[in-house]
């Protein structure tokens, strides 16, 4: 496997690492600049440093946005507006003097899980990233399914019972907002505290958590019967909660009671990689799109 420089562009920090001898080295993070010029200078300096640390033969990049692999343009929008809608891959290759691959961050995380993580051994999987919204990726035959409009894996847009979208109903931050609206409580609250309130018998907290699980269960059921992946991998901050899969499976019981003809049950697993997922996935993407 090639020795690569790796970059994970995030809205708050940019992570850098070198992939050598099938492991990550020189892993560190820097605050994301607000200016394109400073951003480009930062990446130039980091890649120059990588070249002194290892014989890198290319750069793999994980990025927010809808990455058009055919044009090398990051379409769509993100928290970093200056990376969008120009031939950024070509500019990187000229600056770095190396071949460059770029892939969406959720797609990178899915590739990491499929290659050596929770999805290893499966040729098809769905990966859900449950955070402030619900995003993710689809993998078929070991490769990302980007979709005709680069919207493959945008599960958060799907409607749930005409009440809202999966992103609106299936996330902890929105469950907290609903709880605060229902109770009139405005004090800061995190997910762990919402779960604690439910455990202590707060019926409003329990209702909103159950609403979240019901939305995720319906979305997962629809994914299983639309795409029939071998596994559905769950990631994002809420994946650290041990009740996530049991809670979804409880809600799935109700779905299967409504759709009695359905017999295939999704295999739900938690992601294996967390902070390293995007960097590891950038390696897989480089190998698939440049090396091959």
Question: Would you write up a description of this structure?
Answer:
With 292 residues, this protein is α/β, with parallel strands linked by helices. It folds into 2 domains: 4-110 and 274-291, ATPase, nucleotide binding domain (Nucleotidyltransferase, domain 5), CATH 3.30.420.40; 121-270, 2-Layer Sandwich (Nucleotidyltransferase, domain 5). The protein has helices at 36-53, 88-96, 105-116, 166-169, 172-183, 191-199, 203-227, 244-258, 277-291; strands at 4-9, 13-20, 23-31, 59-63, 66-68, 73-75, 100-104, 125-130, 134-140, 143-144, 159-160, 164-165, 231-235, 268-270. The chain has a 5-stranded mixed sheet with strand order 3-2-1-4-7. Strand 11 and strand 12 form a beta hairpin. The longest helix is centred in the C-terminal third of the chain and has 25 residues, at 203-227. The chain is globular, with a radius of gyration of 20 Å. The relative contact order is 0.15.
Sequence of strands across the biggest β-sheet: 3-2-1-4-7
- List unreliable stretches of 5+ residues: none
Helix content: 40-55%
As a whole number of angstroms, the C-alpha radius of gyration is 20 Å
| Name of the CATH superfamily of the largest domain | ATPase, nucleotide binding domain
Helix-strand pattern: EEEHEEEHEHEEEEEHHHHEHEH
- Net shape: globular
Q: What's the CATH first level of the largest domain?
A: Alpha Beta
Mean pLDDT: 96
CATH topology of the largest domain: Nucleotidyltransferase, domain 5
Brief write-up:
With 292 residues, the chain is α/β, with parallel strands linked by helices. Helices cover 41% and strands 23% of the residues. The strands form four sheets. A five-stranded mixed sheet has the order 3-2-1-4-7. Strands 10-9-8-13-14 form a five-stranded mixed sheet, sandwiched between helices. Strands 5-6 form a two-stranded antiparallel sheet.
